[in-house]
Amino acid sequence: MIVSGRFMEFVALILIWVLAMIAIDKIKKGWTVSFRRIAGLDALEEAVGRAAEMGRPVHFTSGLNSLTGTWAPLTVAGLAVFGEVARLCARYRVPVIYSVYGTQVIPIAHELYKQAFLAEGRPEEAKPEEAIRYLSSSQFAYAAAVQGIAERERPAANIMVGPFYAESLIFAETFYRVGAIQVAGTARLYQIPFFAIVGDYVLIGEECYAAGAYLTKDPAHTGSLFVQDLGKMVAIVLGVIGALLTTAGTKAIVEFLKL
Amino acid sequence: MSLAYRRHLPIIITFIMGIIMILQYFIVPKQPVEPYQITMQKVGETLTNWANLLAAFTIGFGMVNIALIHSRHVSRKTPGQWYYSAWLLFVAVIMVIVGIGGEPALGINVSKYQYDWMTTYVFAALSGTMYSSLAFYITSACYRAFRARTIEATALLIVGFITLMSRTPAFQAYLPQVIEVADWINKYIVKSSFRGILIGGALGAILLGIRTLMGMETGYLGRRD
To answer: What does each C-alpha distance from A176 to A153, A173, A237 come to in angstroms?
Structure first.
């Protein structure tokens, strides 16, 4: 019934799912797992605090976001980070500016923003009509608009988590010039080096996807992070064994994974 | 509104639709033959169309958002902003009028030439300008980043220099060995690093999807709990 060539993918998906449920169940029952700190996510409070001290806003962008494209998971990850940023901004009474590229996230961003202020007990201070700004769905018109916000409003912190393309370095350099601390993260391979060079804190690939679980600090969610790391170890072992076997002249692992 | 309506119903819908799309990927080949495969393919295409329609519907949110924010700037004469907002609103209205006037789908062909002209000679030209300015941002970023202060920064400087020089005609003509070195770095070091990041990212996306289907990741609903 499974399409030829996708059987091992199906097995891997089921295995990951079952392991995630087992890990979550064990953690709920008291099993403790320690994780390395993700500096970029820990720095969010530092960035918002800096903005509060300087009396300047915080800028957030989730890049060329889309909830229906290939990078929809990265957009969801960016929204998870925005939820945390909005909550911190509500707590420290710092204006936040969310520059929106794709219109699909506007209602979600509005809701996250209002929920954040509600959670901090300040629903009357929420101004989503000023914070959530749709700029453009054209890449470089969006980039120009973000640059304009950076130059005119001079945010003290710039947080960028999501799918970015060529405009990533434009943002990073512009916000560096206005003196903003930058937390940047993406899973798009060709933009990660740019963020690593110019960002104060960087989230590389999987760290963006882990944000939702990491920031909620819910023990159940961290079970999925444990399975994520387990999957990486399995991938490393398979890679090493496969490389050795291929060097020895047999493609057993490759053929097995192609089932 | 009850919790069942606000929270549980959207999660149930997400779970059902997610399972359908996952099953569609695993049981429908490129050329479906069996009746159940054809049915699943049609269901998947319908759901994808629904998603695209919903996404297109949200364009209205964007238009309203722009109109509200920028008309507020104009009415309050926000210093350093209001004239940009006025110009944006003016050009947006012009483009909408010209665009509708030249829309073949509506059977109107009054201003198609003007729309094409504005798209090609104004919008595309400005986009190209922004893209080309990227070169200067890369230069300034490299100037700041390529400093031999630490071992990692020194390695970055050396590899960056080799890669840059391998693309210049002078080095390609008089020192072609640098091209081989750059290709080796790209083929073995860069590609292997990218694959490692790709595996980690793929696992992260899978686990995010599983958390979403299980109702643990509710950011897409506009709530963090």
So the answer is: 14, 5, 41
Asked, for residue A29, whether it belongs to a domain, the answer is no
Amino acid A121: pLDDT: 93
Residues A184, A119, single domain; the answer is yes
Of B62, B210, B224, the CB nearest to A16: B210
Helix (H, G, I), strand (E, B) or coil at B175: coil
Please indicate, yes or no, whether residues A89 and A193 belong to a single structural domain of this protein: yes
Instruction: Give CA–CA dist A255/B3, Å, rounded.
Output: 49
Per-window interface: A 102-131 vs B, CB < 8 A: 102-104, 106-112, 115-116, 119, 129-130
> Tens digit of pLDDT for each residue in B176-219?
899 999 999 999 999 999 999 999 999 988 988 888 888 887 77
**Which secondary structure element, helix H or strand E, spans residue B74, and what is its range?**
helix B59-76
> Using CB atoms, which residue from A68, A141, A189 is nearest to B198?
A189
- Which chain A residues are closer than 8 Å to B66 by Cβ? 134
The ipTM estimated for the assembled molecules is 0.87
> Which H or E element spans position A81?
helix A72-92
**Do both A79 and A205 map to the same domain?**
yes
Residues A67, A170: one domain? Answer: yes
Q: How far is CA B61 from CA A129, B4, B24, in A?
A: 11, 27, 31
Whole domain around residue A241: which residue ranges?
220-259
pLDDT band for position B224 (50/70/90)? low
What percentage of chain B has pLDDT greater than the value 90? 36
Per residue in A73-112, pLDDT tens? 999 999 999 999 999 999 999 999 999 999 999 999 999 9
**A133, A100 contact by CB (below 8 A):** yes
* CB neighbourhood size of A94 (10 A): 24
A197-214 burial code (b ≥16 CB/10 A, e <16): bbbbbbbbbbbbbbbbbb
> Residues A139, A166: contact at Cβ < 8 Å?
yes
Q: Which tokens is B64 given?
A: 């309203």
Q: Please, how many CA atoms are within 13 Å of residue A36, restricted to the half-sphere of its CB?
A: 5
pLDDT greater than 90 at residue A188: yes
